[in-house]
Automatic annotation (TrEMBL):
Database matches in InterPro entries: Pilus_assembly_TraE (IPR007973)
Record keywords: Membrane, Transmembrane, Transmembrane helix
Keyword match Transmembrane: yes
NCBIfam families reported in the protein's UniProt record: TraE_TIGR
Name recorded for this polypeptide: Type IV conjugative transfer system protein TraE
């Protein structure tokens, strides 16, 4: 091998090595800058979780939820609890229990199961038509006023104006249903009686 070829080969390999060293150094610098940027960045994330039917925009973040989200989830939970027939009750009960806080799940399941047995034995159906919603974001509550219609078979047996309070809690970036209570329509955030609690 001639010295000139040998020198050319060594120069080419040294140039290639230098290129990879500079590329690695540039990559390392970019990674350090990106890591620093991630550490310094504001970590406010908002996760959007959707109820079955959306009529308003809303937000969630690590510290809480928007009043619109409380309203949408409260209406969704009330629809599951108060729009039932013997055929739809079990499905709605399972769906509603997915949103109930773990501490309240057992008592809520017992209450709903007893309600479902009564509905099946009487062949009864219940339907609520919401008319007005009021939200108290500070206490994670909504109040819903509406007409509750009850049927036995296909006969309308009663239609009453009722109010409900739906209370939530927000833990670990998840909204949990705490209670649903029948309320006095004149004072929408005051429970009427403990027996109307879900």
């Amino acid at each position: 091998m001639n010295v000139k070829e040998y020198t050319t080969e060594i120069s080419a390999r040294l140039a290639l090595r230098s290129f990879f060293i500079y590329a690695f150094a540039a990559s390392l610098i970019v990674n350090v800058i990106l890591a620093f940027g991630l550490i310094v960045l504001d970590k406010k994330d908002r996760v959007v979780v959707l109820p079955a039917e959306i009529t308003k925009s809303f937000w969630l973040d690590a510290n809480g939820v928007s009043p619109e989200y409380l309203e949408q989830m409260g209406l969704f939970a009330l629809q599951l609890a108060l729009n039932n027939s013997p055929e739809t009750f079990e499905h709605n009960q399972r769906k509603l229990l997915q949103y109930v806080s773990p501490e309240r799940r057992g008592a809520t399941e017992v209450f709903l199961t007893a309600q479902g047995r009564r509905m099946k034995s009487a062949n009864a159906s219940v339907h609520m038509l919401p008319e007005a919603v009021e939200t108290r974001a500070s206490t994670m509550q909504i109040s819903v006023r509406g007409n509750v219609r009850q049927f036995i078979g296909d006969k309308l047996t009663s239609m009453q104006k009722k109010c409900w309070i739906v209370k939530f809690t927000y833990r670990n970036s998840r909204l949990w249903l705490e209670t649903m209570q029948e309320a006095d329509c004149k004072r929408p955030f005051e429970p009427m009686k403990p027996t109307g609690e879900i």
